[in-house]
Amino acid sequence: MYNVFSTKEKGVLKVVNLMLTARQLLIFKCIVDEFIETAEPVGSKTLMTKYQLPYSSATIRNEMSFLEDYGYLEKTHTSSGRIPSKEGYRFYVHNLGKVDLDETTKNQVATIFNKRRGNLTDIVHESCNMLSELTHLTSVALGNSASDDTLQRITVVPLEYGKVTAIIITSQGHVENKIFQFSSDVEMEDLMSCVNVMNDLLVGTPINQVAFHLERDVRPVLSTSVRQHEELLNAFLEAFVKFASSNVYFSGKENMLYQPEYNDVDKLRKIVSAFENSQAWKTFQPLSIEDGVQVKIGVDSPIDEIGDVSVISASFKTGETSKGSISVIGPTRMPYEKVVALVEYISAHIEKAFLDELPNDIGNRGEHGGRKR
Predict the structure, then answer these.
(1) What is the maximum span of the chain, computed from C-alpha positions, in angstroms?
(2) Pure H helices in the chain
(3) For residues 46 and 372, is the Cβ–Cβ distance under 8 A?
(4) What are residue 169's DSSP bridge partners?
(5) Cα–chain center distance at 9
(6) CA 146 to CA 175: how far, in whole Å?
(7) Higher confidence at residue 301 or residue 201?
(8) How far, in Å, CA of 225 to CA of 197, rounded?
(9) CB contact set of 16 (below 8 Å; sequence gap of 6+)
(10) Phi-psi category of residue 148: left, alpha or beta, with phi > 0 → left and psi -120 to 50 → alpha
(11) How confident is the model at residue 286 (pLDDT cuts 50, 70, 90)?
(12) How far is CA 293 from CA 19, 78, 336, 343, 364, in A?
């Protein structure tokens, strides 16, 4: 597990372990940046012409040999140029400068959270979709499974005629919002009666069993006391089934197929198999809130059998004690600076959206337990 450490020097590497000279650091960073952009081995001629390094070709080759000997670069069998090694990527990531997102990107992210058309789960999915679009890689959102929670209470808030927001709160402080649009025949009095019956009969029920008890215990009571009970019951059934369903959401799976690293049929087969096995991703539990953005490279990643994969993740609070995470999956040759900044920025906005929706008693307790800066 590799945390990303920030520095105020934008776009500059800061020495942590090996005391590289300023020249070695500059050459190394140019090689990594060039390989991320082109996926082609980098030679001294490219560094001299494209990056206009003020060193001779012989000097650059000598420094490249040193970096290779130390394990940060490696030579491919098809070219005399170098590419970053897994250890080189780790060094690069550990020493990334703090990069701020441009205003256009920030505004794109803000549109998701300003409009708030859907519930919080929809917002996480929209954020995941945007992350894959902005990075041209695959993203995955992983939330705490609500099946271990029990129902604490259901609250409804009228929005406008025929439309309400139902707020489902679990014992662990997990909150799920669902906007319902009912027909004109449904009266607010019937809706409140329905909610009161559910709270009376279902509080303390495990979330993954609520749908069953809605059918078995709640339906008979509502059928005798609420006129439009079918429409109301079906709406809450759908909400609870979705709430307790799989907590793994992928976006942009196809982006992995266009990466030159995965032209190999065997690698493609392993990637497709990994994406289809959502259970395997459920074992990749949300990260600790305090750890910030984390990067897993090569064998450290959840798809370790492929090797040439990196995963950049950040966690967010979804309740008093529950959390989720959002990640970007791609080749080790990914634009780490951009992806790290995006993952950190988007996850912070998701966490704020969840904490803003918490009831006051829970939200206040979690007010000081958020993300470390």
Answers:
(1) 89
(2) 22-38, 44-49, 57-69, 86-94, 103-115, 120-135, 188-202, 210-213, 219-225, 229-243, 265-276, 278-282, 336-357, 360-365
(3) no
(4) 153, 175
(5) 26
(6) 10
(7) 201
(8) 10
(9) 5, 91, 94, 95
(10) alpha
(11) low
(12) 25, 35, 11, 7, 25
**Token pair listed for 327:** 């990640």
Residues near 129 by beta carbon (within 8 Å), at least 6 away in sequence: 139, 251, 252
- Specify whether the CB–CB gap between 131 and 42 falls below 8 A: no
Mean residue pLDDT of the chain comes to: 80
Contact in structure between 331 and 124 (CB atoms under 8 Å): no
Nearest alpha-carbon partner for 182 in 162, 166, 167: 162
b/e burial code for range 190-219 (CB count within 10 A of at least 16 → b): bbebbbebbeeebeebbbbbbbebbeeebe
The predicted structure's pLDDT at residue 198: 94
Instruction: State the pLDDT at residue 309.
Output: 86
Contact by Cβ (8 Å): 313, 293: yes
At 89, the amino acid letter reads Y
- CB-CB contact of 178 with 168 (8 Å): yes
Is residue 118 classed exposed, middle or buried when 0-12, 13-18 and 19+ CB atoms within 10 A define those classes?
A: middle
Cβ atoms 316, 351 nearer than 8 A:
yes
In single-letter form, the type of residue at position 159 comes to L
What would the two tokens of residue 231 be?
């429409």
Helix 188-202 vs helix 229-243: crossing angle, to nearest 10: 50
Res. 13: pLDDT tops 50: no
Spatial distance between the Cα atoms of 39 and 44, rounded to a whole number of angstroms:
16
